[in-house]
Amino acid sequence: MSLSKLAILGGLMEKPMHGYELKQYFEHAPGVFWMINYGSIYPALKKLEDEGLVKAKAKVSGAGRSKIIYRITKSGEEAFKNTLKERLKKDAFVRDEFTLHLFFMDFLDKRTIREMIKSKLEGNKRILEIVKEHEKIHKCKLPKYRCEVLKRGKLHLATEISWLNNTLKEIGKGGLK
Question: Taking Cα atoms as reference points, which of 56, 52, 57 lies closest to residue 76?
Answer without folding.
Answer: 52
